[in-house]
Amino acid sequence: MNTIAETTIEADSRVPVIRLTRDFAATPEQLFRAHTDPKLFPAFLTAGTGIELPPGPAVDDDPVGAWQHHCDAVQAVLDDPATAERVFAHPHIGELPLDGAIDQFYTTDVFMHTWDLARATGQDDRLDPDFCAELFAGMESMEAVIRSSGHYGVRVPVKDDADAQTKLLGFIGRDPEWTPPHR
């Protein structure tokens, strides 16, 4: 295993410091970007709609500002009255109303990665149980399509009587029992 020293990404005084650890072949910076990079969703949005979100601060210079700018830009798309008539088109999923696509992919992605970041940093990693149950029910019915996308890991087995969060985490390829290595 390749080891790297602990990485600290400083935010501003309103946001706690994020410390990432890893036990795989990605740098802490790559892990942070995979979960928070505000450039990932805009590329997805542009490919499916032609909409280009305005550029904001660089993540390296201002991670909090970059994320806030990104969130504001996505909210502006949702608030635009024209969004109700726009269609998101993707070769693997077909066409969806744009607001539905944002909810289905963006909101869901941020929600699920909340667990990754919270668990890795020792914070409260409890997710909304009703939303977990809703996501799990919807995703389980599309398992073949989801697995073929390459965006989810192999399903991690969990107990049949597990709670909704545990079932969702196992479904998306997370080990619900995982804890970061001791420092």
The best one-word shape is: globular
Helix and strand run? EEHHHEEHHHH
Tally of alpha and pi helices: 7
How many strands in all? Answer: 4
Give the termini distance in whole angstroms: 16 Å
Query: What is the residue-mean pLDDT, rounded to a whole number?
Result: 78
Low-confidence stretches: 1-28
Q: Helix/strand/pairing class, anyone?
A: mainly alpha
The side-by-side strand order for the widest beta sheet comes to 1-2
Protein name: TIGR03086 family protein
InterPro entries: START-like_dom_sf (IPR023393)
Keywords:
7 helices, two-stranded antiparallel sheet, globular, two-stranded antiparallel ribbon
Give a structural overview.
This protein has 183 residues and is mainly alpha-helical. It has a domain at 1-96. Helix content is 47%, strand content 8%. The protein contains seven helices and four strands, in the order E-E-H-H-H-E-E-H-H-H-H. Strands 1-2 form a two-stranded antiparallel ribbon. Helix 5 (129-140) crosses helix 7. The longest helix has 23 residues, at 98-120.
